[in-house]
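Hi F.,

I've been meaning to write this up properly since the lab meeting, where we talked about keeping a consistent format for the predictions we share between groups. The idea is simple: the sequence comes first, exactly as it goes in, then the structure tokens exactly as they come out, then a line or two of notes. No screenshots and no reformatting. I'm using this chain as the first example so we have something concrete to point to.
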Amino acid sequence: MSQTVIPFCDSYDRPIDDPDLLHRIAAQLVRESVIEATADDGRTIEIWTIESAGTTVVASAPRLEVAADMPLTARLVLEDVPHQVRLVVDSATIKSPSRAGIELRVVSATADAVRRRATPRLDLAVAGTLTALICDRLVPGEAVPARIGDLSKGGLRATVADHRPRAGDRVRLHCRLFEGLLETDLRILRAEANADGTTALGCAFIDLDHRGAQVLERVLERLSGQ
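Output, unedited:
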């Protein structure tokens, strides 16, 4: 999941519709290999991207989950900032009993400034595990020991003795704290090599459930001394 440097729009939360920019976003979607797209009814669809031409992406998806003219939304990390990408299914054909061949068109992208550092982070030092879900260089299900260094309502910083995690990877956090078990999906926004050979990961929470949110709230209250 290598990253392409794509300029931000000059105003966050405003859709980008520059053709050249959308071409590069389409190419980035192909480099991701696997993306998770959300339909307007809230369903999450795993899409395998194959190749791109202009703003069109050739891909495949579960046959019963997609149809022509369906709008979709996906997220990409571009220059360390998550972007929301708006897509539409231009065509869908049956390829096998379980898969459909589709052509996606990139319509627009919006930079999400809120995710950059919307909430203050508090220092923490606790062991955890990051398990690969959708990653470029980690096998799905592979667990990587991590040291959680700070925490906020939006995400955390983790340090791993592994150079393979990359920005854009999706992992599952397992971290047992005094307040309870914090277990949720994370999107790696940044992966920076440290001088000691470890890698610092800036991560954002994905769909933190009610139980996880309660544990997080109690931890943050303790760390802030409230």
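Notes:
The first helix runs from residue 19 to 32.
The CA atoms of residues 118 and 154 lie 7 Å apart.

If this format works for you, I'll send the rest the same way.

G.
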